[in-house]
Structure formats: structure tokens, C-alpha cells
Amino acid sequence: MRYLPKSPVDREEMLAEIGVASIDDLFSTIPAEFQLKRDLKIPRQHGESEILDRFREFAENNAVGYSSFLGAGVYRHYRPVIIDSLVQRGEFLTSYTPYQPEISQGTLQAMFEFQTMICELTGMEIANASMYDGSTGAAEAIMMAVRVTGRDGAVIARTVHPEYREVIATYAQHQEIPTVEVGYSSNGRVDLAALDAAITKDTACVLIQSPNFFGTIDDVAAIAEIAHAKGALLIVSIAEAVSLGIVRPPAEADIVSLEAQSYGVAVGYGGPYCGVIACKEKFLRQMPGRLIGETKDKDGKRGFVLTLSTREQHIRREKATSNICTNQALVAMMTTIFLSVYGKQGMKELAEQNLAKAAYLESVLRATAGAKVLFDGAPRFHEFVLELPKSADETNAALLGDKIIGGLPLAKWYPELGPNATLWCATELTTRKQMDAVAAALAGKKA
Predict the structure, then answer these.
(1) pTM metric for this prediction
(2) Domain residue spans in the chain?
(3) 289 versus 157: which is more confidently predicted?
(4) Cα 294 from Cα 394, distance rounded (Å)
(5) Is the pLDDT of residue 2 over 90?
(6) CA-CA distances (angstroms) from residue 230 to 56, 126, 127, 364?
């Protein structure tokens, strides 16, 4: 039974046992002004048509009709309508862990294809069937490197997403993993000299992000050479997965942590998203999460099963590589459908569109009087840092009057860049009209 009622006599006996006269006495420590001693102000019942009207009113308070130039780890890309049509099928929507492969072949095959596509995109040899998101994936990758190397330290680039670094700090604190951050050079890439100096005999791994938080693409090969020369693993975090359509995959890395939100997952007010860890096959048994393997049944037919799963739901807690207790199978399914729809050539064309849109946005904003693009001299994907003539907060407040959501202020995480530095993003959904409009607004003109 989901609900076991207690009789008045039962309640009196319970209160007597704990030594109070009434239920109200249980709340006596709460100040009187905070106690609710009246009926709740609940509106009358509504008909279905009234409820729909009420939610339409709520929707009108949202940012309808605004153009947005925000990115910073969450990206607006077109979602083919087929995604929701398929993931909302009961076979996928209600499935959980496919412990019984004989009745879960569809789910298992879809997850296997997900792993295969991730390997093709990242240049890695093996991938798991998803993590919570990009931030926890990066933290789990560091823990994985500690297990692989037997060392206990991590060197992290400051150009890794600041919120990823906050999540990593929480993990590292309780895993007793000391971390060191290294800065960036004038072109926005990792400072290689500082990185080389920071790696010691106790360093298990180096974590970078490429494209990094400033939108700059790092020299993964050079960083890998520095890390490997001192016995450390290289972890590459990728927050913008669409970049892999045109940016060379980080094949020199040992572990890749990917946020797959850009592959058909809605912005959705911050989640749920889909993290992934991919790596060299020799590190397979230290990979967290779940893994789908291909096998053959008794008749020799192709089949799929859960295999080598090292999460604590599957094996003894002391043997588990992670305390992750689920994955993002349904969100990973969205990714699988997205990649299947676009295909290899489509992903390349999509990335080229993003690259071109950002190049145009940069060109029109660079022409604004007093504006300056920071970190020139290194390749970028679809984000860049712009220093404005006025503070970022003041500028964004003014842009809102023109129904424009401007770039992300960076002073909170990078105070050395000053209050005028902002991070701007353009994707395939950003129109030329919107970009011309924001340039005109910054110049004090009407588009």
C-alpha cells in the first residue's frame, strides 16, 4: 500500500511516546511569524480551456521574439522534429537499465550505435553509453586518470569552462585529488610554458578544453607531447560537440569528455543534458558508467548486452569506478537520432555554417566604435571574446530594450579581462538580420 493512515488513537500514542502534547508542539521551535495558521490561498478549480489560457499568459512573460548571442557551454541548434517523434515512443521513453537483453535489443542497439558514433567523432577507440553531463564527465575523467596512473594530482587549464572547474573542485575535494590551474597566453590558448612547469611526478592528468571557454581551439598535439613526456595523461573536454564536424578530433588525447547537448538536445533551462567519456581501449576497465557490447546469440545472430559495467548498481560498491547510479539513455537517444539524420557530410556542413556565422558576427561587431576582439592569432569556432566600450552589464541592459540578449559578461570568472569583456556566440540559427541589428544597436543606430 502506498499510504498507511494513522487513527487519532495511533497519533496520540506516538505523541505520548516522544513526549509532546500535540502535533503543533512539534513545530514550536519555528518562530510564530513564519508559521502558516490560515488556509492556503488556492484558486478555484479551472476547466481545461482556462488552464491553457493561463499557461499562454505565462508564456508571454518569457523572452519571446528575442535574439540571443549566448553560448558558453549551452548552444542553440536546430532540432529535427523526428527526434521527439521517436524518443517519445513508449519503448524508449519508459525504458531503464536493460538488464534483460532478450527483451531490450532495441535500446541496447541504439546505445551501441551512440557509442560507435562518439568514437568516430572523437578519434577514440571506446566510448561509454553516456554520463550525466559535460561537467561531471570531466570530473569522472580525472578520477579515471588517477586510477590508471596511480598518481593523485591534476593540472587544469583556466580556459576550461568555469562551472566545469567548480564541479571538478567538489569532486577533487572529497577524492583528495590536488589540482593546479594554469593560465592562458595572449592568443587565448593554454600557456605551454606554464603548463610544462606545473606538471610534476605526481600529476595524473592534464585537463584542457578545445574549443575552450573563449572559443579558441588549442594545440592538442603540443599539449599531449608535454603531458606524455612527464607520464601524465591528457584529457580533452569538449563543450561544443558540433565543432567536431570541422575541427580535427583530439586523437592525441588519452581520454575525451564530451557534452553532447548540441546534438539535438534542447537548451531546456539547463538540462537534462548528455555527457560522454571516450578513451583509448587500454583504459577500458577504468571507464565509469555503463558500456554496451556486441555479441552473438546461440544461433550465431548479432546481439547486444551490457558488458564490463563498473558502476555501483551492477557490482559491489568497493569495486565500482564511480558512484554514478544512472545514465542519460533517453537524451543519448536524441543524440543518436540527430547524428543519424545529419550524417557525416551533414555534420561537416552544419559546422561550416556555424563557423561562417561567427565570422560574420565578429566582423560586424569588430567594426563597432570602441569594440575590440580579444585573443586574436589563434583559430576559433563559433565563439569569441569582445571588449566593449562600456561595461558588459550596462551594454546588455541597453540591448534588452531592443529585444537582444547580448554576450556573456566574463568578469565574474576572469576579472583580469575587466568589466567590458563579453563572450559572444553565433550558430546556424543566428540570422544575418539579427547580427546586423545587434551591430547597429551597439553603434547607437537603428538597423
Answers:
(1) 0.86
(2) 67-77+345-443, 81-338
(3) 157
(4) 56
(5) no
(6) 59, 24, 26, 44
